[in-house]
Specification:
By secondary structure, this protein is of the alpha/beta class. Helices cover about 20% and strands about 30% of the residues. The chain contains 3 helices and 9 strands. Strands 4-3-2-5-6-7 form a 6-stranded mixed β-sheet, with helices on both faces. It has a 3-stranded antiparallel β-sheet with strand order 1-9-8, covered by helices on one side. Helix 1 packs across helix 2. Bound molecules: inosinic acid (IMP) and magnesium ion. Magnesium ion binds next to loops.
Length: about 200
């Protein structure tokens, strides 16, 4: 994926293009690379710069959704140059290993209240959107000043609910992906790229 390959230009989020090279040195379960480590870093920098401009010096609270968003969040915040704090939520979504049901349970809540604050939810991936829909409702009811979403990846083909996602890293095709925080059965989070899981 290069900028010149994205016909919509640099202001809209890019669509990931698979690279037909299997990184065999990592794991036999890892298939095509959908987003390389270089493309991830470039896009995360762009998002950080955009967020810094948009919040214009107002203190920002990033809410990371454990565990997958930790990797994205920690890279992202190093490209944000306005006052920024972080907090985390852990949620469990009932369903299979690859499908969430929308029935969400809070495993760990935020440490502090968010009333009156500018809050940006940082998610690894929006698949059906059901987890994010729950989070937006739940955090929205706590009366933040603003509440927005920054998702590294979106899978439009799988979306079940319409959601406002202001910041999006990459749009990907309908495949189960691992790496850069994303897991399959808790494994593969450490891969420095995003790859499809081989069937
Ligand atoms: P949703 O509720 O269907 O949008 O699912 C959201 C959550 O499911 C994400 O935060 C991930 O933890 C997980 N998930 C969805 N798709 C993938 C994937 O392709 N790889 C790894 N985890 C995924
Ligand atoms: Mg997961």
């Amino acid at each position: 994926m290069t900028e010149s390959m994205d016909p919509r230009g640099p202001t809209l989020h890019p669509v990931a293009t698979p690279v037909r090279v299997a990184p065999e040195q990592y794991d036999r379960g890892v298939g095509e690379v959908l987003v390389s480590a270089e493309d991830l870093q470039r896009r995360v920098r762009e998002l950080g710069e955009q967020i810094s401009r948009d919040y214009g010096g107002r203190p920002l609270l990033l809410v990371g959704v454990l565990k997958g968003a930790v990797f994205f969040l920690s890279d992202l915040m190093r490209f944000i140059d306005i006052p920024v704090e972080i907090d985390f939520m852990a949620v469990a979504s009932y369903g299979s290993a690859t499908d969430s049901s929308g029935v969400v349970r809070i495993l760990k809540d935020l440490d502090a209240a968010i009333e009156g604050r500018d809050v940006l939810i940082v998610e690894d991936i929006v698949d059906s959107g059901l987890t994010l829909q729950y989070l937006l409702r739940n955090l929205g009811s706590r009366n933040p000043r603003t509440l927005e979403v920054c998702a590294l990846l979106v899978k439009p083909a799988r979306r079940k609910v319409e959601l406002p996602s202001k910041y999006i890293g990459f749009e990907i095709e309908d495949r189960f992906v691992v790496g850069y925080g994303l897991d399959y059965g808790e494994r593969y989070r450490n891969l420095p790229f995003v790859a499809a899981l081989e069937k």
